[in-house]
Every structure is written in C-alpha cells, then in structure tokens.
C-alpha cells in the first residue's frame, strides 16, 4: 500500500506558499506499540509511505501514522520527537509532528514545542526555522517564554544572530535563559564585544539578579578571547559580590581568563583562594587550567612544579593533564622528564588515548628522539587524522622526509581520503627532497579533492615549487589563491630568495606590505638573505632600520641573519655591534659572528670569540668548525687547523663531514702539502664530491704540480663530466707549465662538448649606487675611464715585477 501526500506550513501566519521541507530525504518512524519500523521518504515535496505487510499493522496505520486517539496520545508523540531529536534524527522528529497534525490531532493539544524547535535548529537552516516560527505565531504559542527562548537558541544555532536579536528586543518578558542564550550566542558566534555588552546590559537591567553560571562563563570566555582584562576584572568583582566566585566552573573560567590576558598574578590569587576547598581545590580541571596557563605564558618551570605538587597531593591526572605536560616537555626540550611522563602514562593506562599518543610523538620528535616517536605511532591502534598528520609533518620537518612519504602512501591505502593537514605534510616532504614529480602528483590530488584553494595547502604548494626551482609555477599557484595569508607570501618571497631572484623578492615584499599584511621574523630573515646575496650595504641598513622601527630587533632569527648580512656586505663592525648588544645568543648567533670574522681575515678575534663561546657553555656544532677551519685555511695556520679538526672528534664527538674535510684539504693545499691533502681525501669515511677535488686541483695549479693535477682532474670528471670551470683550471695549469699541446687538447674538448664558461661578474657600491661589471663588457657609461684605470694598474704591476700571462688573457681559445 502506498499513500502520497504533501505537507505545508504557513510562513509567519500568511499564505501556504512555503513548504516546510524542500529536499529529498529518508526518515524512519518508530512504532511505540511495536518494534516494527516503517520507512517514509520524501521525493519532490511528496511523502511516500510504505506500510508493513503485517495485517495487524495495516489496521493500526492508515496514512503512515497512528490514527486512533485512544492508542496514541500527545505525550507519546512528544516522546517520539524527543527521542529522534536526541539521536540526531531531526527530519524524523519534524515528520512525527507533521503526521500528528495530518492525522486529525488539534495543534492546540500539542504543548511540547521547545523540543520540536530544537529539531529545527538541528537542520541549521534558517528558512525552515522561520517557518516553525511563523507556525507558532499563527496558532498563538509565542506567549510561552519557554517557546521564545527555544526560538532564540534555534536562530543562533542556524547562524542567524540578527533574527535572534530582533526577537529578543521584541520580547516583553525575559528570564535568565533568555539572557544566557543571547550572551552565549554572541560568544559562540565570535562576536565577543557584543557578548560583553549584553552581559553588562543584563546586570544593569536586572539589577544583578541573574548571576547564573552560563552567562558568566560566556562573558569570561569572551574576555579571554579578546584579552580584555578590564572587563574580566569587572566580572570577577561581580562574582565576588554575588558570592559565587568559588564555583568550580567559574574558578576555572577566571583562571583561564587571567592567563590568556597575561595576568599570571591574579590567576595565582584565584587558585590560591580555593586550594583549601575540599571540593574545588582537588578538582582536576582547575589544576589543568592552571598548568596550561603557565605553559601558555612560558612559565615552564612553574608549570612543572605545579604538576609535581598535583601528583604529591594524590590528584590523579587525566589525558588533558598529561597532554599539557608533554607540551611543556616539548618546549623545554627535556627528554628525561618526558620519559618519566611516558612512564606515568603507562601506569595510568592512558597510552591508548589518541590525544596522549599524538602528544607523546610530538614530544619525542621535539626532544630529538624520532625513533621512539615512530615506534609509538606504529604500536598505536587508534590512528586518527590528527595522529597521521602529526607523524607525517614531524617526519618532514625533522629530517625524515622519505618516511613521511612512506606514511602518506600507507595512509592513502588504508584511508584514501586525506585532509589538508595530510597533504600539507606530504608537500613539505616533497619540498625537502625537491621531488617535483611526486609533489605535482599530490598537487593534482589536492585539486581533485578541492583542497587547492585551502590557504595552508596553497602556501605549501608555493613553497614546494620554489624549493624545486620552478618560480613560474610557484607564482601561478600563488596568484591563483583566493586568500593569501602571511605564510603564502613568505613562501613566495623565500622562493625568490632561494632562487637568487633578488629583485623579485624585494618587489614581492613591497607588494605584501601594500596589501596591509605585516611581515614576521621569517619574512625579514628572507629579506636579509637577499641583502646578503646582493652584498648591498645601503639595503642592509634600510632593512635594519625597518627592524628597529617594528620591534624585530629582539628576535634571535632576525639578529642572526642581520649579523651574517652585515658581514657579507663588508661591514664587520656593524656585525660585531649587533652581536655584542644581544642579551641571549644561541649556537647560530655564535656561528654567524665567527663566520664573519673569518670572512674578514680577523683570525685572532675569531679564535678569541670561540673561547668565549665555550665559556658560555654553548656546544660547537659542524658549522662552528667549518668557520674555524676555513679561517685557518685562509690565514695559513696549519697547526691550528689540525688542532680544531682533531678537537671536534675528540672533545665534542662530532664526526667530520665533507665540509670540514674540504676546509682541511684547502688548508693543506694552500700550504703546499699536496700529497697529505690527497691522502686525507682518500681516507675520508664519506664520499668526496667535486668541490673537495676542485679545491685540491686549485692548489695543484698554485704550486705547479701537473702530475697530481691530472689524477685529481680524472676524479672530478668522473663525478661531473660537464664541469667547464675545472677544465679551464686544468688548461690554465698546463699553460703555466708550458705544455701547449695539452692546453689545446683540453680546450678542444670544451668546444666539442659545447661547454661555455660564464663570464666573471663583479659589482661595487659607490654613493648608494650599484655598478656592475662583466668581463669584456663595455656597456657601462664610464667604461672608458674604467679600462684606462685598469691599464694604469697593469703598468704599475709591471713596474714592480709582475709578468702577465699573455696567452691566458687571450680570447681566441674561447671564440
């Protein structure tokens, strides 16, 4: 049997031209007398009822609903609506009411509209909400304060705050629920100022008679969200006056408000007042909020002390507590304490909690034990999207990009539907490895999933293409984003900086500012790297002034970049001044100034600074010893070089890398110890690259060792056959030794291979203007004066005994 009908409700008591339900859906009616389910589906605004085949059911149901009033009463209808609403079957709840009306029951008999209105709110559709509002208005049910309050809540739930405000203002009678609904509604919708205005209005109009918990919690939450300490203090005073400041929920909200406003002292005062209260003082939530507040305000030692005290008092922590403490360990980089917390988690049986597992992984990654972190992930049985995203992102950011991509492949096989965080992690890994084909495949997947417009995924894509050297596509992705935040702008500027597109980076920086987006420390570090690349002093000083005006000068990342920029722009004095003014210096800070001193040949200052670094208990790293060994090489201090090279292994347990071996080979080569340098290369535990062989080849040229140079050159050309620079160096060596046949052979090889040496380029800053010179170029407007000066210098060199190699200066071989 099938019955088709349409349901209509009037809108605001006017005409029957608006249907209550306008989309197809399927609902289920519960038979209160039996357990049989009867399905009901709406298609094209008509309801099709399929009745069960049981003859007894057919006698009870004629139109999909109980029609015998003696069998079905209003309370049972309400119970059905309540059950459906609580279970989230909002359409079913509404259908029960419609069937109730169509089966002849008078609307006036139904008195349970608050529950029905809640079902309409669950649809999140303001148009349908207006229909029930109109229906109630037509039948005169809006005199009931409970119905009005339910409608207020429905409008807020549907995102129609304006409708809620209009209705509230027209209400002749308001109770505490009315005010609570409005104050909470503004707060939950993010309009925190209006939430506080409504709270103040409630106090003023009601004389403080409504000091209920809900309104106060919402008001305190609003204060915390906008860091409005003044209003927070007023609400605290209001609570003290009403004698409810010891309520455990309000105490937690007060502490949270003070902590988010940065007023640690008042938060501590609130906490101390309730510590002796048996009920509130041992409430775990209050302790959690206090510990989290300390962590958020970077009072890490106080947070740890409070956690220990909590344990001593016998208050058992929950998952929220240990998650906060694990965050604390991550910020302290204290692996020892983190391991103790891990043991406590196992003892409490919280290791199966996915939030705890994720926080444990984060802690081990941040504290330098990624292997344990990966073991935790692999042992976990409760992988959710957050945990997957966490392990991938941490792998990508902590030097395990291949593992991140393996996890991504595993996730795709197991789950198949990544969220933006998963895609972000995979793109970070591709950026680190410069895996352009794999990253482009992920880009295509992001487009297919509709995540390419996500601002975070978009920023990661810009960064990925920049890391892969494809700035054209990076710009295409960037300008295709509907929203561009600071992260995406930083990715673009960083991409330009990394690809030596200095002018483009500076233009992007200006464009970003014109869009009213303020740079952060990452932006300024990128711009300083551009200054370093250009070696333009005036630009470096301009950036420094900008940093001072915008209070960036206290940031470690910016100051480290500033020290390097000044040094590479030729102003070691400014570099040292920045260094000496810093109250806190990390490893990078010391390495930056050491590199600057070495670059400017101030070897003694460099060695003295290194001793101060050790006195400051800063452990040297590979970068430190690269700077020291490079300086020893340029100053010819062989003994000092060996001392530092051996020290890094013996004193600091640092295994030398290719960079340090290259410095030692250069040091020995410059000093004429060519065979010793060759033996050092051959004894390396790591594979030598073309740079270390190139350093030895240059030394062979300087000392005229043709025999060893040929051996070294063979090693180089095995690694990179197209290396034109080293072939030219070898040809010049043969030319110096007078072996013109070999010179001709090498240069013939260069021509046949189609190799071309890039002409040398230099530039100089004069009166804040940059002058660029390229070998053989006459485009400069004062090229006549320039070459006349060169000729004058050449004559002066001849007078003091220098004899130039005419053949080496000839261009006929490079035609």
UniProtKB/TrEMBL annotation:
It comes from the Eukaryota. One of its GO terms (biological process) is RNA modification. One of its GO terms (molecular function) is RNA binding. The keyword Repeat applies. PPR repeats lie at residues 175-205, 247-281, 283-317, 384-419, 485-519, 586-620, 621-656. Gene3D superfamilies: Tetratricopeptide repeat domain. Keywords: Repeat. PROSITE patterns: PPR (PS51375). Belongs to the PPR family. PCMP-E subfamily. This is DYW domain-containing protein.
